[in-house]
Amino acid sequence: MDMAKEMNVAAPLVEKQVKKFGIMDKLGYMFGDLGNDFFFGFISSYLMVFYTDALGISAGFVGLIFVIARVWDAFADVMVGRFVDSRPATKNGKFKPWILRFAPMLVIAGALVFTKIPGMSNQFYLIYGTATYIIWGTLYSTVNIPYGSMASVISGNSVDRASLSTFRTIGATISGVFTGILAPMLIFVNNKVDSGRFFIVAVGFAILAMACYVLCYKMTTERIIVKETVAGQKGDFAKTLKAVAKNRPLIANLVNSLVTIFAMIIGGTLNVYLFKDYFHSASSLSIIGFMGMLNIVLVAPFMAPLIRKFGKKEVAAAGVLVSAIIYFILFLLPITNVYIYLGFVLIATIASGFASFTAWAIITDTIDYHEYLTGKREDGTLYSITSFTRKIGQAVAGGAGGMALVWVGYVAGAPQQTAEVAQNIKNMATLTPAIANLLAFLIIGFWYPLSKKKVDQLAIELATKREEKAKAE
């Protein structure tokens, strides 16, 4: 691949003379996703059961709500990304100021999602649940798109970006302590949902999330400044989309994002019912949350040396393949002991962690490849297109989660589900991630083209072109 011949004029970038990239940037970026995932994780895992068991909304209607909201969110992501790209950089950066501008409204909306007003009709709860969820999702776009776009301007170094991806995943994993371990202990009483406790936990998460957003803003530094903005002339976005269609790494990653987010949402949704109705141990959800924390100790320290030696693509592909094998085993084995099941899940979680820690760094590589193809730097737009795809995956998975409960015969509000329903939940909760991880392996291993060698070559070509452009100016 002769990148120098195909490269257009490099984007007008300049690197600010500020303090060097370091641990403060990594921790600050970690706090950003920690703030995001207080509600993203809480909603992904427990909103379904809050709607069905606290508000009394049927699983089918819940699935419809999720589809409508997530499809809207997907378009909101692109609008926000394009808007941010069209705004000039401020003295504090191009992306991170938007985090503080919208974070207060976002956390308030998150608390309202888990608010049950006593004595209202079923129709009211249906309308209220739909409205608050859509409002929260829209505000989430206004914070998450600038946050995600920020990684590519904090540093231009591939290893630095891999570190940001690792610390972002660490932030998401730490949130699992609260959403995966602490939350189940608080929101369930005698294995049943308590709406009052849901609200208290949501308010606590709102306060913690706001503190994290402030720390993200204070601790990170945007070093790479794009002098030009996307002006928004007619046809500009169409040109961007044409370039996206030629960006094989981006297309492959978009498809992989669809598969990955589908598995994550379905798994988070069905796990609640799996442990509640199949294993009759809702408290075991806390152990699942703790397993995510183990990745920080067992996986994160090895990511940088593994990526340096093998590359992001190679490490991620190996991780999802092992995870797929484990879930296929869980589907086939008639396991009824919750602790044996958790032992298998621990292995799968560790394996998939190698892919999770590379996910966000891979996105920055696809943005660099877009610059290689077009000569333009459109971080917000490209990140929002990736997020758009993930939201479509969330919409499909959210709807499928509700439909899946209908398909297996789940009865909302029933004192106990039948043995047949419980077995169907177990089958779906294991087969879905097995197939999804196998597809992810095929996509990353055979479709996504940016191997370690090609990423290194891309970085050299971009650096050369940027240097030549700076000298010419």
Automatic annotation (TrEMBL):
NCBIfam families: gph (TIGR00792). It is a multi-pass membrane protein. GO terms for cellular component: plasma membrane. The chain crosses the membrane at residues 27-49, 55-78, 98-119, 125-147, 167-189, 195-217, 250-275, 281-303, 315-333, 339-363, 392-410, 430-450. One of its GO terms (molecular function) is symporter activity. It comes from the Bacteria. It is found in: Cell membrane. One of its GO terms (biological process) is sodium ion transport. PANTHER family: MAJOR FACILITATOR SUPERFAMILY (MFS) PROFILE DOMAIN-CONTAINING PROTEIN, MAJOR FACILITATOR SUPERFAMILY DOMAIN-CONTAINING PROTEIN. This is Mfs/sugar transport protein. Keywords: Cell membrane, Membrane, Sugar transport, Symport, Transmembrane, Transmembrane helix, Transport.
